[in-house]
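Severity: low
Component: inverse-folding endpoint
Summary: output formatting inconsistent between runs
Steps to reproduce: submit the following structure tokens with default settings.
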């Protein structure tokens, strides 16, 4: 199950179907902080987006945390958590 902003938790397949209709008009990452631990890293940031999904507004400011792992010489996001900031 995945968490979708303003929607709650949803099955992964449903979330992936929503990605195709997620229209991001603009976005920015601010206050980025990266902590590295060998082949692992944690990135914390404030993420702002103006977006719509099937015509519904999904614009918001989020606190975002990504966990990265270096595999075969390249970095990949393996986990992400977002919370809407009020």
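Observed output (run 2 of 3):
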């Amino acid at each position: 199950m995945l968490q979708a902003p303003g929607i709650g938790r949803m099955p992964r397949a449903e979330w992936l179907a929503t990605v195709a209709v997620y229209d991001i008009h603009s976005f920015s990452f601010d206050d980025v902080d990266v902590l590295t631990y060998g082949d692992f890293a944690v990135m914390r940031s404030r993420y702002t987006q103006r977006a719509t999904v099937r015509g519904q507004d999904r614009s918001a400011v989020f606190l975002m945390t990504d966990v990265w792992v270096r595999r075969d010489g390249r970095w990949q996001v393996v986990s992400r958590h977002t919370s809407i900031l009020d």
